Amino acid sequence: MTSGATPLGYSAWRASRLGEITERLERAAIRELTGPLALLEVLDVGTGDAAHAVALAREGARVTGIDTSLPALHAGLVRSRAAGARVPLVAGDASGLPFRTGTFDVAIAVTVLCFTPAPSQVVAEMARVVRPGGRVVLGELGRWSAWAAWRRVRGWLGAPTWRNARFWTAAELQGLAASAGLVPGSVRGAIFYPPFGLAAAATASLDPVLGRGKTIGGAFLALVATKPAVSPTPP
Description:
The chain is of the alpha/beta class.
């Protein structure tokens, strides 16, 4: 779950009990939808400090990360080198991805659309750079959850991260994918516990089961969508 825009913020979040459990469950939801990624070309949009990208690279994916934050990308470079993983990191805007059409097999964006002013453009760009038959996987902050309520209050009280954040429903994510020419598929919910470490530890084992059957109440939603294959040329 997004904790802040700085590498220090990411590190502090992951070091907490709540952060460790929450990120593990979020990544599991994303990975369930991506399927096996070994030897596939994968784009991690909004890669931040590349923690997710490095984890995928260590599983055999050929991952490229992109982000607007230079400090985060520097932290990602340090992380990838320490892990012995080859992860090219690119500075760029998700609403205008600097890659050719059809470059990647899979494009992933986790907690990106909640902070961008142009979510439709971001999804359209992800659809563009994915090959026909490829997948786009979106992981976003769910609207109907205790976490969303807590974050809205923090935004009203002046927290800059949450002041203009947008929260999503499953139907809205499916609509975004469809408007980009993708075929929406499964949606998973995750993080059904309130934002407290003890609650996370007590209920984490039940979270994946809940997420396969519902999205209401989940602080995190994950959607997979497929880019239609090119129609065969008539003889």
